[in-house]
Amino acid sequence: MAAADEFGVLTKAFTGLGVDEKSLISILGKWHPEHKQSFRKTTRDIFIEDERQFERWDDRHVQKLQQEFLRFKDAVVLWTMHPWERDARLLWEAVYKGPKYGILVEIACTRSSEELLGARRAYHSLFEHSIEEDIAFHIHSFEKKLLVGLVSAYRYEGPKYGEEVAKSEAKILKNVIKDGAKKLHEEEEIVRILTTRSKLHLKAVFKHYKETSGNYLDEDLGDHLILKQTVQCLCKPETYFTEVLDVSLKGIGHDFAKEALTRVIVTRADVDLKLIKEEYHHLSGFTLSHKIEEIANGNFKDFLLTLIARGDQEN
Amino acid sequence: MATLIFPEHPSPVADAEALKKAFQGWGTNEKAIISILGHRNAVQRKLIRKAYEDMYAEDLVKRLESELSGDFEKVIYRWILDPEERDAVLLNVAIKHKPSPDYRVIVEFSTIYNPEEFLAVKRAYQHRFKHSLEEDIAQHTTGDLRKLLVGLASPYKYAGGEMDVKLAKSEADKLQDLVKDKALNHEEVIRIITTRSNAQIVAALNHYKDSHGTAITKHLKDDPANDYLAALLTAIRSINNPQKHYEKVLRIALNKPGTDEDAITRVIVTRAEKDLNDIKDIYYKRNSVALDHAISNETSSHYKAFLLALLGKD
To answer: B23 a known binding residue?
Structure first.
């Protein structure tokens, strides 16, 4: 391989999601000191000219690189963990290393009643508190009531729901939104409906809302991200997950967005990843696998692609 | 300790036969029903229901409903159901109560039952009523009372023994500040009472008493007009000392003009296999009258006889 090509391969191996260990071994392993020097001098993204005349590895990049080496390990650990422990730890991080409201909503609303209960049990074992008390204590924002309610929910999962009640609750939501209250997530009725009704009931509310107002409920709640996410997670999780993937694959924002890629694929691989793939394709014009080939590296990339391929075997 | 007396190995088949015989002919042999069902525990009752169904292709519960009436029918109906199902029924009745929900039942079950027991009741509720308990409570209440009751009914509380002394002290101080500001409907009060484990709350309440001189309950007056405060007071009392709470429910139910049979039935039926004996002791200490005696005076006929059987009369 020509030197310039090798530089290109190496740069890619060092930047992006995950690290291409194979390339690093094969290229770096055979380079002599002058090759490495040449690489350092020409790769301005990663190395900067120090005043004492040597090419110094950019500190921020070293930190990022460390994270990238860990990315595969983190994905494997997350995948192997019992879903209850996994979700309990994600919840804990969302409270104590954030707060990351999106993750709280995601876990509380996209898991089944028994899965959420299991996560809460695991949380007791791991942290000797309930997630309910920890969120109530540590989160002080207006969203607290909604979040405590969502994470405390043990929703009915049977087939029955009241069509008339769903219609009237769609109307209630329409009126509350129309009044344009600033703190919508504090509105008693919105919180009541979103935190206690069954998912089937909420899908009916969603449907009636569209029929009577002409708009989608989650779009009308667009100004209140947390409410929008709540409705999406409860009524059409594929849409929510697709948007999360889209943001994370565009490389927008911080490591938080990149972590989301691992989290979504690992937690949805055996659930609805097939649906999410279809919706992602529809939204972006690309296949998920294609995008991941483009921006991820090494074992991390291979692992994600393997998980995605599982979805194709689902019926 | 429980008050229920029951034989070690009764025959469900013999019991089912005896009950069938009790239904035959004109009228019903209530004495037989009382002497059998009044002396069987939950497992044994379930076996009788199954045997009866197998032998006669009929639901014992429905048959009892049609044969009996009044308070006697209500107590037998609640007694013959599986405990979780019964509690679900009691909760549903309480929620639908007019003119306003009977918050006592919701508070009792959510604070006195341990998290696993209460979860089992919630499952039974969903199974029977095709709604979650939380959504029904939310739909039938508003404002502060809704926040408190939904807040009590929803969380799956931590039930390990671990308790944080420092936290108990700081939350006791927080409560003291709110009591001073007369802000008992403040978020923080609701947060502490609805999300902390019972062990943690009791620790905070004890610290409150130790450092501020009086128990917090002294500051919560029995204001019948304010359901929220009354429910809050009930919650705190139930968490602190469940048997004392039950004694009070019985005392009020027996003393009021007209007698509150629903409350008496609820307490006796739900505690006969748990701690009714302790409640009896407390009742006697408080009122200088035996509970059996008070019930004898205020109730009558088969209803009375059945209650006394559950209270341990042979």
So the answer is: yes
B118 is in an annotated binding site: no
The two structure tokens encoding residue A81:
């963990």
Q: Which of A112, A113, A128, A133 to mutate to test the interface with B (most CBs of B within 10 A)?
A: A133
On whether the CB atoms of residues B185 and B175 are closer than 8 A, the answer is no
Dist CA B133 CA A173 (whole Å): 22
Q: Are B156 and A136 inside 8 Å of each other by CB?
A: no
Give chain B's count of helices (H) and strands (E): 19, 0
Q: Specify the residue for token string 């392993």.
A: A29
Q: Residue A56's beta-bridge partner residues?
A: A48
Encode pLDDT of A76-135 as tens digits. Answer: 999 999 999 999 999 999 999 988 999 999 999 999 999 999 999 999 999 999 999 999
User: Which chain B residue has the Cα nearest residue A191?
Assistant: B138
Is the complex ipTM higher than 0.90? no
Q: DSSP states of B216-237 as a string?
A: GGGGS---TT-HHHHHHHHHHH
Sorted by where each starts, the structural domains of chain B and their CATH numbers stand as 12-68 (1.10.220.10), 83-154 (1.10.220.10), 165-240 (1.10.220.10), 245-311 (1.10.220.10)
Q: Which domains does chain A have, with CATH numbers?
A: 163-235 (1.10.220.10), 237-314 (1.10.220.10)
Residue whose entry in the numeric block shows the structure tokens 């972590």: A259
Whether residue A226 contacts residue A188, with contact meaning beta carbons closer than 8 Å, is answered with no
pLDDT digits over B204-225, tens only?
A: 999 999 988 888 888 777 566 7
A100-138: buried (b, 16+ CB within 10 Å) or exposed (e) per residue?
bbbbbbbbbbbbebeebbbbbbbbbeebebbbbbbbbbe
